[in-house]
Amino acid sequence: MSRKLKLAVQVETAATGLPGKTQLKQWAEAALQAKVKQAEVTVRIVDAEEGRVLNRDYRGKDYATNVLTFTFEDDLPDIPGLPLLGDLVLCAPVVAAEAEAQGKPLAAHYCHLLVHGMLHLQGYDHLDDAEAEVMEALETQIVTTLGYDDPYRDDETP
């Protein structure tokens, strides 16, 4: 069975320089691991206020963050063949500010954060050093395959 991704995109911000649906889908598909046969994901790009409210209400942190991942796996029965289901929320002003502060192209940072969120949807995490190492290696592999620089590269290191 070939992998298939149904992607819905919602834009709730007036920010400019946002990636389009085709680009988002390419990045999301690249992040799907072989075990995932089907996925249905919504990517919502929001302003700082909505990002702050979601982060506060769902994570208890009262500030806007770059990406939030909402997986529906825990709320559903274990049914063979059920697609990967989830939502990713990208906060446009935070993504733009981080890209500028890190000296990265905006598209590269959006790509990295979308890949990061897609990996979270598939069960990857970075709660401890070993998990973080695995997840960051995957992110680097996927993002560089898509033509962007290693998102964890430190340009100040000789």
From TrEMBL:
Its cofactor is Zn(2+). It comes from Chitiniphilus shinanonensis. It is an enzyme of class 3 (hydrolase). Keywords: Cytoplasm, Endonuclease, Hydrolase, Metal-binding, Nuclease, Ribosome biogenesis, rRNA processing, Zinc. InterPro entries: MetalPrtase_cat_dom_sf_prd, YbeY, YbeY_CS. Its EC number is 3.1.-.-. Signal peptide: none annotated. Binds 1 zinc ion. Zn(2+) binds at residues 116, 120, 126. PANTHER family: ENDORIBONUCLEASE YBEY, CHLOROPLASTIC. The lineage of its organism: Bacteria, Pseudomonadati, Pseudomonadota, Betaproteobacteria, Neisseriales. Single strand-specific metallo-endoribonuclease involved in late-stage 70S ribosome quality control and in maturation of the 3' terminus of the 16S rRNA. This is Endoribonuclease YbeY. Belongs to the endoribonuclease YbeY family. Pfam families: YbeY. It is found in: Cytoplasm.
